[in-house]
């Protein structure tokens, strides 16, 4: 799910990673 968001919005990559802990 998050991986798809990262692909759609690379800008939120760091945001997702930071909240993926």
Features:
mainly alpha, 21 residues
Give an account of the 3D structure:
By secondary structure, this protein is mainly α. 67% of the residues lie in helices and 0% in strands. The chain contains two helices and no strands. The protein has helices spanning 2-8, 13-19.
Task: Summarize the topology.
Blueprint: H1 2-8, H2 13-19
Taking the sheet with the most strands, its summary is: none
Which structural class best describes the helix and strand composition? mainly alpha
Oligomer: single chain
Shape: flat
Distance between the termini: 15 Å
Radius of gyration equals: 7 Å
Percent of sequence in beta strands: under 5%
Share of helix, binned: 55-70%
Number of helices: 2
Total count of strands: 0
List SSEs in N-to-C order: HH
Low-confidence regions: none
Question: pLDDT average, as an integer?
Answer: 62
Summarize the structure.
The protein is mainly alpha-helical. 67% of the residues lie in helices and 0% in strands. The model has no long low-confidence stretch (mean pLDDT 62).
């Amino acid at each position: 799910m998050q991986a798809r968001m990262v692909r759609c919005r690379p800008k939120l990559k760091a945001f997702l990673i930071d909240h993926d802990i």
